[in-house]
């Protein structure tokens, strides 16, 4: 089913049109790699033929790096730079093992014709998976260069040894340092070309007809009003209706003429006001469920609950929210005969290539996806819908087509972080130790589902439901929602046990790494004295968690001002093994914390009768600079542990810590995200 949209915002202005972008790799751009690039094409095909499954490191060294005539070494990866620093980190990894300055490394990222498939940029996998792969390849190349100082491209036609040794953490010279952001100057001065900036010779601009509401299908439309406009191409393929023209203004004018003739059939659609009731009513459970629930546990929860000294239960609600990247989806598609090239902003270049190949019935080697460094993703750009739409228009027009979603389209038709309903009950013994744990998650997802707290009897369930909105990955995926519910419930259990929330957690927590960050944050924040000092308007909260191999703990101080929550301070401790770039890690953690403020306090998608009620930046409030509190970070550098990714996990403890602080300040128990005071 094609993507649809309600009333679109008109373009406020035409984007600047830079000079046509060339994707040819020449000696001037890439250090004289002509021969090496030809070799790469063959080696990449060989590596793919060895059944790597799309996520394993390439077997051939020549598929990973090339040596230029000028001494510059080019390294290849399918990872995408969306502001998180992967280009810099991968550059450091190669420079470290080659023993050369980072300035002599050039990274080629996310080009399906040139780069091996390292999997998408998701799941915080660049650090634990791609960095080691590049380090091994670079270490293997270093051995060749040491034995053959005049090595040429053919000397890299060898397998990367599985047992190649990389440098010990304590011997790092480039990794472990705060290397400045590669290409940072181009980002700052505006010369970098994002996907929405790409221009090709003879390019047209496209606009797509969107439905007036969710669950609406097109019954009739007349393209003639658009086709009568000079220089306009109008297309209909089933429910896909679009037009292209030399300027976006002309394309918008033509689409408006088409939209005036469109007739739609709309089916009922749930409202955000009844969302959580809907999730509960449509939950799939029992032997007849089409999607079987995930259930795991141990012991007997019912028996343990019956014998517990203290029993407590509560339910929590987490709203849908949007990713709101700085750059909405964009793509430029160009056909050359039966071959297709698309420049687009996606976190999954090889997956999008496959989607394009399937859509147009092409062999995968006839499709090339190139991803310029992109203006944000946060898990929201895993799919290739805009690339497919642009390619459809370009095929019909016989010219390259640029398609850039408006902010309204991004809000409405991009997928959302799933909403969730949580039902939890637990029992404590006379000493305040968990005896029973019963946790049910409706719809939100399984990331961060399992509790780190020790309970001898437990049951954990995830149930699929009918989601009214399209949903998908988000920074931390479901871990944000699962930690919100679980950590707030732990606060309520601590109150039932008449215990300090920190002491209660530590008494029920065996994981040494999680205990370490919890204690580090609490000590720096001076938790115990501040928690004991109660105020009618100022409160403190604490929360912790683990996800994707890293560990986070957050302490916050909030102030209630006329029923509104103002976060005054955040103290966050974070541990992700050995730190590879301290400055970039700090940026990642700070970015996660600020993003977490939005989900905690203001972000919530509202919808009624199939339409978004707040799908505009003026209505959907993401954090502003004025919202950012004083932040103190405690980064634990565990050189004895493998490095884990840091793009997602820091966000997970922000919302529950804020919600707990609201209660501590006298704002009542919070059981919904975003936080609603006094409900």
| SS content category | alpha/beta
Total count of domains: 3
Mean of pLDDT: 91
Task: Note the beta-strand portion.
Answer: 15-25%
User: What is the CATH domain class of the largest domain?
Assistant: Alpha Beta
Tally of DSSP helical segments:
18
Q: Which fold name is given in CATH as the topology of the largest domain? A: Aldehyde Oxidoreductase, domain 4
List the helices and strands and how they pair.
Layout: H1 27-30, H2 34-49, E1 65-67, E2 73-77, H3 86-98, E3 105-109, H4 126-147, H5 184-189, E4 204-208, E5 216-220, H6 224-227, E6 233-237, E7 240-245, H7 248-259, E8 263-266, H8 275-281, E9 294-298, H9 301-307, E10 310-318, E11 330-336, E12 339-344, H10 349-359, E13 367-370, H11 385-397, E14 401-404, H12 407-413, E15 420-428, E16 434-442, E17 457-463, H13 479-496, H14 501-507, H15 512-525, H16 527-532, E18 538-547, E19 550-561, E20 564-575, H17 582-601, E21 607-608, E22 611-612, E23 630-636, H18 654-664, E24 672-673
Parallel strand pairs: 2-3, 4-14, 10-24, 12-13, 16-17, 20-23
Antiparallel strand pairs: 1-2, 4-7, 5-8, 6-7, 9-17, 10-15, 11-12, 11-14, 15-16, 18-19, 19-20, 21-22
Helix pairs in contact: 3-4, 13-18, 17-18
Keywords:
Aldehyde Oxidoreductase, domain 4, 29% helix, 679 residues, 6-stranded mixed beta sheet, single chain, 3 domains, alpha/beta, 21% strand, globular
């Amino acid at each position: 089913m094609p993507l649809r949209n309600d009333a679109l915002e008109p373009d406020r202005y035409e984007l600047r049109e830079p000079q046509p972008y060339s994707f040819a790799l020449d000696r001037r751009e890439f250090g004289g790699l002509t021969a090496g690039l030809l070799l790469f094409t063959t080696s990449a095909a060989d590596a793919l033929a060895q059944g790597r499954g799309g996520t394993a490191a390439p077997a051939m060294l020549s598929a990973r790096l090339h040596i230029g005539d000028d001494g510059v070494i080019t390294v290849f990866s399918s990872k995408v730079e969306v502001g998180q620093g992967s280009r810099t980190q991968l550059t450091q990894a190669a420079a470290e093992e080659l023993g050369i300055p980072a300035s002599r490394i050039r990274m080629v990222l996310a080009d399906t014709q040139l780069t091996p498939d390292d999997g998408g940029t998701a799941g915080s996998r660049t650090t634990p998976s791609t960095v080691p792969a590049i380090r091994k390849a670079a270490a293997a190349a270093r051995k060749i260069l040491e034995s053959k100082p005049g090595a040429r491209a053919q000397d890299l036609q060898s397998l990367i040894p599985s047992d190649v040794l990389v440098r010990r953490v304590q011997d790092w010279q480039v990794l472990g340092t705060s290397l400045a952001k590669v290409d940072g100057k181009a980002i700052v001065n505006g010369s970098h070309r994002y996907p929405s900036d790409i221009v090709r010779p003879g390019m047209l601009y496209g606009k797509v007809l969107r439905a007036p509401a969710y669950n609406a299908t097109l019954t009739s439309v007349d393209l003639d009003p658009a086709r009568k406009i000079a220089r306009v191409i109008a297309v209909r393929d089933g429910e896909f209706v679009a037009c292209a023209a030399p300027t976006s203004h002309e394309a918008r004018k033509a689409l408006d003429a088409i939209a005036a003739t469109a007739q739609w059939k709309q089916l009922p659609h749930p409202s955000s006001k009844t969302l959580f009731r809907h999730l509960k009513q449509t939950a799939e459970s029992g032997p007849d469920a089409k999607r079987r629930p995930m259930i795991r546990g141990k012991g007997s929860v019912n028996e343990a609950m019956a014998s517990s000294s203290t029993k407590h239960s509560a339910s929590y609600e987490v709203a849908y929210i949007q990713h709101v990247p700085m750059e909405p989806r964009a793509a430029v598609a160009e056909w050359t005969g039966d071959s297709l090239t698309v420049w687009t902003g996606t976190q999954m270049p090889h997956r999008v290539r496959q989607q394009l190949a399937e859509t147009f019935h092409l062999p995968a080697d006839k499709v090339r996806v190139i991803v310029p460094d992109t203006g944000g993703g946060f898990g929201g750009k895993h799919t290739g819908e805009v690339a497919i739409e642009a390619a459809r228009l370009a095929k019909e027009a016989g010219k390259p087509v640029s398609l850039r979603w408006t902010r309204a389209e991004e809000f409405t038709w991009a997928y959302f972080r799933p909403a969730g309903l949580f039902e939890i009950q637990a029992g404590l013994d006379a000493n305040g130790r968990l005896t029973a744990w019963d946790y049910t998650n409706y719809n939100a997802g399984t990331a961060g589902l399992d509790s780190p707290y020790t309970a001898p009897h437990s049951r954990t369930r995830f149930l699929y439901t009918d989601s009214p909105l399209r949903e998908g990955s988000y920074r931390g995926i479901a871990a944000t929602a699962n930690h919100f519910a679980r950590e707030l419930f732990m606060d309520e259990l601590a109150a039932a046990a008449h215990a300090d929330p920190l002491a209660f957690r530590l008494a029920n927590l065996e994981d040494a790494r999680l205990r370490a960050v919890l204690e580090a944050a609490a000590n720096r924040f001076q938790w115990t004295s501040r928690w004991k000092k109660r105020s009618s308007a100022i409160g403190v909260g604490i929360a912790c968690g683990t996800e994707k191999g890293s560990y986070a703990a957050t302490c916050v101080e909030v102030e209630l001002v006329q029923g509104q929550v103002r976060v005054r301070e955040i103290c966050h401790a974070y541990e992700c093994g050995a730190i590879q770039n301290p400055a970039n890690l700090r940026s990642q953690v700070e970015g996660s914390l600020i993003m977490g403020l939005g989900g905690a306090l203001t972000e919530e998608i509202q919808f009624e009768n199939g339409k978004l009620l707040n799908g505009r930046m003026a209505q959907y409030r993401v954090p502003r600079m004025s919202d950012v509190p004083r932040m103190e970070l405690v980064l634990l550098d565990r050189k004895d542990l493998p490095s884990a990714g840091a793009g997602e996990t820091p966000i997970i403890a922000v919302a529950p810590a804020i919600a707990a602080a609201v209660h501590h300040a006298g704002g009542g128990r919070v059981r919904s995200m975003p936080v609603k005071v006094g409900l």
